[in-house]
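Minutes, structural biology subgroup

Action item carried over from last meeting: produce the structure token record for DUF1501 domain-containing protein (Oxalicibacterium faecigallinarum). EB confirmed the sequence was re-checked against the source entry. Recorded below for completeness.
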Amino acid sequence: MQRRHFLTSSMALASGLVIPLGKNAWAATSNNATNRKLIVIMLRGAVDGLNVVTPYGDANYRQLRPTIGLAAPGQEDGSIDLDGYFALHPALHALQPLWEQKKLAFIHASGSPDSSRSHFDAQAYLESGTPGIKRTQDGWMNRLLAALPAESSPIRAISIGPTMPAILSGRALATNIGNSNASNNSPIDRPQVGDAFAQMYRNNEKFSKTYQDARSARKEIASAAMSPTMTQEMINANGGAPLPNGFPKDAAHLATLMRNDSRIQMAFIALGGWDTHANQGAGKGQLANRLAPLGQGLATLAEQLGPLFDDTTIVVMSEFGRTARENGNRGTDHGHGNVMWLLGGRVHGGKVHGDWQGLSSDKLNEGRDLPVTTDFRSVLAQVAERHLRLNDNQLTMVFPSGPGTSTLSLYV
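Output recorded by EB:
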């Protein structure tokens, strides 16, 4: 996205000046409310973008991934050809029709310019929209909500998950609702509440023992319900986000809400389980088991939004990618560049966008990772501008540190 006014406008806003939209600006913007929608899906834990959209046309790919590399299209458990060079993970076959309809696009080698390999920091930067700046108190979706002209409403932006995410935190009103597949949690599972009950029963030996036994049983049930491949590190990387198993149901629920109430303009869902340090698998296995419900949920969302899908952009993103070379545990470690996904009726679909430089060792970041050649903010800024019709000054409110520039054309 060539935005020659953008950085100048950012500095001007910081100094108290207001620069009007230039006559040569190439996107139509408006101060009027728009009925267009935005849905953001965040994959917490760093999904392996090189096995989501695999560069099977690069000979280095199979050398770097001798056991977890996807088979070429046409082979057993092979990937799904996209353009003769890139292919889609076979577990995402539900998305193939959207690709063929040119309503699905990918931006490869994209991500945060910050080099952090910490899940906590990288997720915070992805949600704040200010990489490298830890003092940001609000999320970019909340700032976007504040910048969009429309009547304020608590259901204008909704999050589906256990808690309100940082990406929607801020002065604009937003609402959080629980996942449809949420576990049968009780207030008593909260440490403060549980400890309060323990104190209340402490002087009654019979009630105290009964209560402690029941509390222990709930913990054991919760532990038994956890996926056997989930490590404590993966749980921490998830940041409280559920696995994608229930995502198709949540997607159908979200589509129903958005169809039935036109006031809902933005939505956010976080999904966990992507920190695949060991036993990642290739066409089948751990990663495939996560991707299958994700792909099915996205296909369900597109289908059940109906005509509303043409006025909707769905963004799928993750905090960073994973190492180009598989590790000794047949998994991948924390990396850098990744792949972003765009779905919608107006996206420039059927194309893998981005400045792809290949997987030769001299092109890898620090000799180990896919580099970031497209700042994630430049993708989001184009969504805000081309899809939601924000002007330059509104964009500086949403991304105050600037998104950088790119030549991508993500909308038709």
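Discussion: Confidence is low (pLDDT under 50) at residues 1-30, 220-226.
Next step: EB to file the record with the rest of the batch.
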